[in-house]
Amino acid sequence: MVLNTSDPRPKIPRPAAPKSQRLPLAQRVAPYVFVAPFVITFSLFGAWPLVKSLVLAFYITNGPKSQVFVGWANFRYLLADPDFHKAVWNTAVFAFWSVFLQLPLALGLAILLSRPWLRGREAFRLIFFSPNLLGQVFVGVLFSVLYIPQYGLLNRALHALTSLPVIRTFGQIPLDTKWLSNPALVMPAIVLTSLWMYVGFNMIYFLAALQAVDRDLYEAAIVDGAGPWHQFLAVTLPSIKPVAIFVLVTATIGSFQLFELPYLLLNNTAGPNNAGLTVVMYLYDRGFQIGDLGYASAVGWTLAAAVLLISLAQMKITGAFRGTGE
Amino acid sequence: MRSFPFGNAALSLLILSILTGTWLATHAPPRRTATLVFWTFASQHYNAYLKAIPAFEAQHPGVTVQLQLVSNTALASRLQAAMLADVDVPDMVEIEISSAGTFFRGPLKDVGFLDLTERIHKSGLWDGMVRARFAPYTSRGHIFGLPHDVHPVQLAYRRDIFQKEGVDVSKIRTWDDFIRVGRKLTIPNKRYMIELSDSDPSNLEMCLFQRDGGYFDPQGNCIFDNETAVQTMLWYVPLVAGPGKIGNNLGGGQILTKAVEDGYLLCLICPDWRSKSIETDIPRMAGKMALMPLPAVTPGGRRTSTWGGTMLGITKKCRHPDLAWALALYLYLDKPQLAQRFRDTNILPALRSAWDQPSFREPRSYWSGQPLGLLYARLAPHVPFQYTSPFIATAKAKLGEALVACVQYYKEHGSAGFEPFVRAKLKQKADDVRRLIARNPY
Predict the structure, then answer these.
(1) SS in 3 state form for B25-37?
(2) What pLDDT is recorded for position B221?
(3) Alpha-carbon distance B283 to B365, whole Å?
(4) Domain end position, chosen among B317, B339, B371
(5) Rounded CA separation B317/B299 (Å)
(6) Mean pLDDT over residues A287-298, rounded?
(7) Taking CB atoms and an 8 Å limit, are A30 and B189 in contact across chains?
(8) pLDDT grade, residue A87 (50/70/90)?
(9) pLDDT band at A12 (very low <50, low <70, confident <90, very high)
(10) What range defines the domain where residue B92 resides?
(11) What are phi and psi of B172, to 5 degrees?
(12) Count of CB atoms situated within 10 Å of the CB of B320
C-alpha cells in the first residue's frame, strides 16, 4: 500500500518581489558580514567548547591524546562519590546562608540607607559597597590573616568581648580558635567573609528598587492605617519583587559557582576534612589536579543542570513566570 | 567614502579592524630566542642559578639559557596546560615533590618528561646520589627527574628555654623520651612542646615516612591504611588532641615567627630547607635556637625522616636534550657551586660526594654554633624512601580527612574504641583512593 502524502490543499504562488524593490547584493550580504565576527567567535570559543565538553563528559581523558569512551560511567561515579556529595552539601549550605542571611541583611541595609533622615547615608552606601570593589583574591588573603589563631584580629576581639563579666557566663571564645583548620568553623568563616563582600553589592540593587517605589502607595497605606511593618509587607515587598527575584536567582547561581574565596582562604586546598570543598573546586581538582577533563566535564554539566533546575524552581515559587500582574 | 552604504561609523570600524589586524599579523610576538628555557618555583634556586648560568653560557658559546621564576602553584598549572596544548613548553623544569606525581599519569608515551633512567645510570648518578631520592620521581620503573636535594629532617628547638628548664637534649633519644619532656614543658593554651598539626597531614606524613610507611608502595598501590599507618595514627593523634596534647599549630609566616619568639612553640620539625626559612623569618632567635636529630620510634631506630623535595625534569619538547642534560649536571653536580649554594640555602644536595666541602662543616651562629651541614649530612643516608603516584594529591587529601576524623573522635571519646575507629577510617579513605585508581584505564 502506498500512502498519498501529498498536500491536497491548493498551492498559492508567492508573488515575486518586483526587481526594483530588491536590495543590491552588497546590502543583502552586509548584515551577515557584520554579525560574522560575533558568530565565528562565539561558535569557536562558546558553542564548540560546549559541544566538545558535552562529548568529553562521556570519556576518561588524560589530555587530548588519550581518551577512553566510558559512556555514563563518569556520571555514575560522580553520583556515588562521597567527595561530590560533600561538595554539593557544602555548596548548598553556602547557598542557603547566602539567600537567607545575605539577602535579608542587604535588604535591611538598603531600607535603612534609604531613610531620608539618616545623615551621611551616601557615605554609608559607599562604605558598605566598597568591599565589592576588591577582588576575591584580596579578600581571601585579608580574611586569612584576620582568622589567624592566637594573634588574629577576630580571635583577639572575640576573646576580649567574651571575657567581659556579663558575657563570660555564656562561654569564652579561646584565643587559639582555628577558624580555617577546624572543620566545624570553616563554613561559618567562608559565609562571614562572603557576607562582608557581597551584602553591600546586593544592597545597591535593593536601594535602586526602593527608590523606584511609588511614594503615593505609602501615603495611601498610611491613610488606611498601616504601620511600618504592614507598609513593608503590603507596599515595599510587592513593589521590589522583580528586583528581589533577580537578586535571589543571581545570588543562588553565584553561590553555586563559589571557588576563589574558599580556595584562597584555605591556602589552595579544600580545607580540613574537605570542609570548604565546593562543586567548582571539586571540578577543578578532578580536571586539573587529577587531569581527567572528561570527568570534570561531567561535573560541569551536572552543575549546570542543577543550577538551571534550582533557578527555575525559585522563579516558579516566587511567581516570576506570572509577571508583575499588570 | 560616499559609496560606502552603511555610514561613516561602520566604515571607520572596518578600517580600524583592518589596520589593527594587519599590525598584529605583522608584529607577532618574537619567537623565543633562548636555546634553553628553564622554569623553577623556588626563589632560592632561582637566585643561585642566576649566578651560575653565565659561566655555563661561557662554556657553551652561542648558547643562551632563559631562567624563569614561576610560583609553585602556577608552575604546576601552567606546565600542565602547556603540555596538554603543546604550546610554550619549557625545556627544563624544577617541580616540587608533591606535584611531581601528577605529571606521570597516563600511558608512558604521554608523560611530558624525558626518561632519564639511562642517562642517570650511565653517568654514575644512581650510585653517587642518595638513592631514596630517585623514588618520588620514578614511575613504572622509569626515572623522570633528577633529585635536587635530600631534605633530611631534624628538630629545631628553643635552646635557651630548654636550658632554663633543665632539659638535656642528648637524653632525648626516642619519641617516648620526647613526649615525657613535652608533657612537663607544655602549658595548655600558653606553651606547646612542638608544632604539630591536627588537620594538615604534612607532619603525620613525615612521621609515617620515618616508620617506613607512606601513601603508595613502589608499584603504586595505595597503602596508607596498612598496620604502620594505623599505628602511626594511633600514636600521633593523642599528641595533638585530648588531655595529653603537646603539639599545636597556628600557621606559617609571621604567626610562626611570633609563636616561636613568644615561646608558644618550643620545637619545630625542621628539614634542611626550613632551617633557612627559620633563619630568615625569625632572625631575633639567632643564637637561641639549636637542632637535634628526630627522636627515634624505637631505641636505636632511624633518627630522621624527610619533608619536601624538588626534581629537575627535561621535557619531551626540549630541542636540545643533551645540552639540557649538561646544564642539569652543571647545576646539580658542580661541587664549588653546591658548596656556595649550601651557604645560601642550607639545602643539602643529593650528590653525596659534595658533602665533604668545607662549607658543610662550618659552624652556624644562628644555630648556637652547630655545624649545620654536618648534622644534616650524617642523617641524609638514612632518609626513608617515598613513592609517588599520579593520585598523590588525592591521597594526601584523604589522609588529611582521616586525621581530622580521628582527632574529632579522640576529642569526643578518648581512647575508648579509638583503634577500631582509626582502622575503619583509614581503610575508608584509602578505599576512596583505590576506587579512583581503579577508574584509571591507562
Answers:
(1) HHCCCCCCCCCEE
(2) 93
(3) 11
(4) B371
(5) 50
(6) 88
(7) no
(8) very high
(9) low
(10) 36-150+307-371
(11) -90, 100
(12) 15
